[in-house]
Each structure stands twice: as structure tokens, then as C-alpha cells.
Design goal:
Layout (H helix, E strand, L loop, with lengths): L11 H14 L3 H8 L3 H14 L17 H13 L5 H12 L5 H10 L16 H13 L4 H8 L8
């Protein structure tokens, strides 16, 4: 099984030896690669870097994607989550767009929450259960029920300490 991993940067010392061998012995890229145990592409990159910059020091890391949110928008996200900790990612995205005019995807919102160290607490009760129409319907249903506890236990096959 072949395991692929990120390549390891070669040392500055090895870079210098490659450049010096090329200049002093006029070796080909293939010969340099063979002698120093690196790939031909590595030799090419080291020699091009020396030619273009006059140095063999590795270039700084190019960085990653720039964060889409400003500090002000990050503060707003914190405020939104504190106000509604059970809000979905989609709801947070919509709220951010309405309040700050910034449209971001759910995955970006998820990444922002992680970077801000925020977690969303899911409510144990669905919000729909608390709307006025659902509460009224539930109250009406409960009001029409008659409870016969002894009959209910007998129906379920449950015995009570009183023998019912």
C-alpha cells in the first residue's frame, strides 16, 4: 500500500550544494537529482529560485484563503448565537445577511463558529411546539381527554402495588 504525504522541504544546505555542483561541475539536472537523492523537479525549482532571487532560501508560505468576515461581522455572529443558541446554520446565515448585508454559505458559517470558539446548543423542545396555534391545538386535545388511570394500566398490562 502506497502512502502519500506532503513533501518535506529540503534543507538550505542541500539547496546550496545543488547550486554549487551545477555551477562548478556543470552537471545536468538528472545527474544532480541522482547525486543528491532528490527529484529532477526539485533540482529545477532550486536552480530557478537561485536564478530569480539570488538566494536558495525557501519562499514564505503563500497563505490560505482570506477570511470573509470582518471583526465587526464576527462580533455580530457572536451576538446572534448568544441571542438564539439553537439557531440553525441557515438561520444564522440569513440573520447575518439581514443585519450586516454579508451573504455567506452554511459551511463558511460553520467555519466561523469554530474559529470563534462558539457552539450551538440544540433545544430539547422544537420551537414549533411553542407557537400559539400549536399550543391552542394541544390544549384543546388535552381538554377533551378523559383519564381512567386504572383502565389505562390494565390496558397496558401494568400492575400497580395496589393490585390494579
Amino acid at each position: 500500500m502506497l502512502l502519500l504525504s506532503m513533501p518535506i522541504a529540503i534543507s538550505t544546505d542541500l539547496r546550496i550544494r545543488i547550486v554549487e555542483a551545477r555551477a562548478q561541475e556543470r552537471l545536468t539536472y538528472e545527474q544532480l537529482a541522482e547525486r543528491f537523492g532528490v527529484g529532477r523537479a526539485t533540482v529545477d525549482r532550486v536552480l530557478r529560485l537561485a536564478r530569480e532571487t539570488g538566494s536558495v532560501e525557501p519562499r514564505p508560505h503563500g497563505g490560505g484563503a482570506v477570511r470573509r468576515t470582518t471583526q465587526q461581522e464576527q462580533d455580530l455572529i457572536v451576538e446572534l448565537v448568544r441571542a438564539r443558541p439553537d439557531a440553525t446554520l441557515e438561520e444564522l446565515c440569513v440573520a447575518l445577511e439581514l443585519r450586516a448585508g454579508l451573504r455567506i454559505s452554511r459551511s463558511t458559517m460553520s467555519r466561523e463558529l469554530r474559529l470563534l470558539g462558539l457552539t450551538r446548543k440544540k433545544s430539547l423542545v422544537a420551537r414549533e411546539r411553542c407557537t400559539a396555534d400549536v399550543v391552542a391545538a394541544r390544549d384543546a386535545f388535552v381538554a377533551q381527554m378523559t383519564v381512567d388511570a386504572a383502565g389505562w394500566f390494565k390496558h397496558c398490562g401494568v400492575s400497580t402495588p395496589q393490585g390494579n
